[in-house]
Design goal:
The chain has about 190 residues and is of the alpha+beta class. It has helices at about 5-25, 70-80, 90-95, 120, 145-150, 155-165, and strands spanning about 45-50, 55-60, 100-105, 110, 130-135, 135-140, 175-180, 185.
């Protein structure tokens, strides 16, 4: 990853995400610090993951570098808390027990293969996050997911297909595109 954040910068991102969510829950306006590190103004992909008692409670992000990092974190922290379609909006009661994780992403690159079996060699569990595309179906899994689930690369690819609403073997289809990216992961 060419744009590395320091641990302090990562913890600052988490604090900003937390303060932003808390302000929203209290119907207050959140204004981020003005003296942010330069990297916060670079366009980077980012995901905010919320966990409640070690269970996923929300995860939303921008896989592509659409916006400056600070703007992206402000957007996706609220989306993870209040707009993840898998969950009800976060409550103030739950908020005190939420653990926040911020993943800052490299730009996704298409993984070119001659044969689908090449994916099994080219992709690495615990290093690569993956995006799959086939027609209008698209899915993404962050690099930490297969590690947390104890998946091998084949299981990672099959679950990526499920996430996109595709059959588990869609990664073998020549019309399917797979992109990889890496992430810097910061946890509370």
């Amino acid at each position: 990853m060419n744009n590395k954040l320091s641990e302090e910068e990562g913890q600052l991102l988490i604090k900003i995400a937390r303060d932003n969510i808390e302000s929203h829950l209290k119907n207050e306006e959140y204004i981020p610090p003005s003296d942010l590190p330069d990297i916060f103004h670079e366009k980077l992909g980012v995901f905010v993951t919320l966990n409640l008692h070690q269970n996923l409670r929300g995860c939303i992000g921008y896989p592509e570098p659409y916006k400056p990092l600070i703007d992206a974190v402000l957007d996706v922290s609220l989306s993870a808390a209040f707009e993840d379609p898998r969950f009800y909006p976060l409550t103030l009661q739950e908020f005190k027990d939420i653990e926040i994780e911020v993943s800052v992403l490299t730009k996704p690159k298409e993984v070119k293969v001659v044969n689908y079996k090449d994916y099994l060699v080219k992709l690495e569990v615990g290093v690569d996050g993956l995006i799959i595309e086939n027609n209008y179906n698209r899915g993404l899994l962050l690099p930490q997911v297969p590690v947390e689930q104890n998946w091998n690369i084949r299981e990672f690819l099959e679950n990526l297909c499920y996430k996109a609403g595709l059959p588990s073997n869609a990664w073998k289809n020549e019309k399917t595109k797979i992109y990889n990216f890496q992430a810097q992961i910061f946890q509370e």
